[in-house]
Specification:
4-stranded antiparallel beta sheet, alpha+beta
């Protein structure tokens, strides 16, 4: 992914000991950095909101700083 727009915020919703971070950008793009297992770590994917599980969406909004909540909620509804 070349030249993404300005980063808004990165929100971490770990799954046990595994990393599970979502970085949101002004243009609506989402970068997902995660660990698939203890042996397969540091993975990265560019995703859209539809591919985020509902449980993660709830956690993202819960962990989201108040000043970004409206913007992130709008991206998650796309």
């Amino acid at each position: 992914m070349s030249n993404p727009s300005k980063e808004i915020v990165t929100i971490s919703v770990p799954k046990g000991d595994l990393d599970n971070d979502y970085t949101f950008y002004e243009d609506g793009k989402i970068r997902h950095n995660y660990d698939q297992s203890a042996y397969k770590t540091g993975l990265e994917a560019w995703i859209n909101a539809r591919s985020i599980p509902a449980t993660d969406k709830e956690k993202i909004l819960k962990e989201c700083p108040a000043e970004f909540k409206i913007k992130i909620a709008a991206i998650l509804k796309r």
